[in-house]
User: What shape does this take?
Amino acid sequence: MSFLFRKRIKLLPGVWFNLSKGGVSTSFGAKGLTLNIKDGKVRTTASIPGTGLSYRTTSTSTQGDQAPTRAVKPAWVWLLVVVIIVLVFILK
Assistant: This one.
């Protein structure tokens, strides 16, 4: 058995600063869609609130001689993510 530590601090509506045993990260979003940024990795989580169903992807940025672990998503995917986040805040 091990101890866990996690603290989430709300900076603005839809923006959090996360502290944990594994490090520090920043999250953006609302129920249903969240972007989490930590150590050059962007984790996108989309879910259907109240169902327990979710989908998570992680993309990494390449630095130096590191080989890319995933292909970069087309720009329209990121545009769609931003539009969904804006709609969530408007309809909230």
In short: The longest strand covers residues 23-30. The chain has a mean pLDDT of 80. The chain has one domain: 6-91.
